[in-house]
Amino acid sequence: xxxxxxxxxxxxxxxxxxxxxxxxxPPVIWVNKFLVMPIFNFLQNYISNYGVIILLLVLFMxxxxxxxxxxxxxxxxxxxxxxxxxxxxxxxxGDNMTQAQQDQMKLYQQAGVNPxxxxxxxxxxxxxxxxxxxxxxxxxxxxQKPFLWAEDLSTYDSILNLPFSIPFYGSHISLFxxxxxxxxxxxxxxxxxxxxxxxxxxxxxxxxPVIFMFVLNSFSAGLSYYYFISNLITFAQQAIIxxxxxxxxxxxILDENRKxxxxxxxxxxxxxxKLQDAMKASEAQRKAKK
Length: 290
Hints:
Largest sheet: 2 strands, antiparallel
Number of helices: 12
Structural class: mainly alpha
Strand order of the largest sheet: 1-2
């Protein structure tokens, strides 16, 4: 075969030949084949500017993921309302981390709060972010397609060539990567105001964008542009959601859950029950070893 590595063309050559364009592993490849690529190809039929195509692709994906974003925000809002009580539990138990964790689990169960409710929706978005990484890395459609200062969206957008090479970074500066990194750090700062995460995990959120700045500096400008626009739309989503979230109402729901738990009429979460049992078993083993 002598021709372009175009997924649509390769798909018509013979069965399985399109695998020469690597789209990731399951479930990432499924997300690419049945969600991202059909939308991308549809937009190509009507729009010639690939910067606009990527912008519309981001908008569609963020709208699709709005329920998960809302669920994540609500989970963090509930955890933030419980933070004073969580801090009191830590202070009460001191260095006894096991007892502190058990008391925290009791609090979550009484208030009807899943401590992972803010994280799980975010994790479910990762297959889409990874699918975009593979699609923009291997698609031929972005080649020689300019947008703003980027002369070719399939490669990096160098705004300054350095007279030396920085290890793991390169000898150029990509503006889209810098914008992506700055917006990611701001996004993490905003999340830290909402979450109850403390210590090293809180700092890790700032380190990760810097690591990606080094990793993605020589990758497709279309990729870093997608991630940058995705961050901007996330800011807008959170601002809109915040306007419609009534923390007073959430607090009243948590108080009602406590009353139901005290009366024995609340629904028990199987996940929380198993988690609490596992912690009790761990504490029993620790005491048995003494």
